[in-house]
Amino acid sequence: MAIELVPAWMADLEEEDVVFIKKFLLASGSLKEIASQYGVTYPTVRLRLDRLIQKIRLSENDSEDPYITLIKRLAVNEKIDFDTAKLLVGEYRKRKGGD
User: Fold this and answer.
1) What is the CATH topology of the domain spanning 1-60?
2) What are the tens digits of pLDDT across the range 65-79?
């Protein structure tokens, strides 16, 4: 696939996410098999898949403010905790609404 044809949601993923997707597809979607390949538990793989789904949904939500999307992406990637993300988004919305 030519680079210009790569969907935006895929271009926003980190390399390790793309590797996970490839393994997931080659395992026919078996989370049990993926857990075995990574040497982790099923719930750990399920959590990783859920976070990957969140990342994809965030990148497809063009209607949301880019700053809020960034904060949510940082929370999903565990760069900041969820409570901090909520606080930042709340304060941003208050200040933006006051303009």
Assistant:
1) Arc Repressor Mutant, subunit A (1.10.10)
2) 888 888 888 888 788
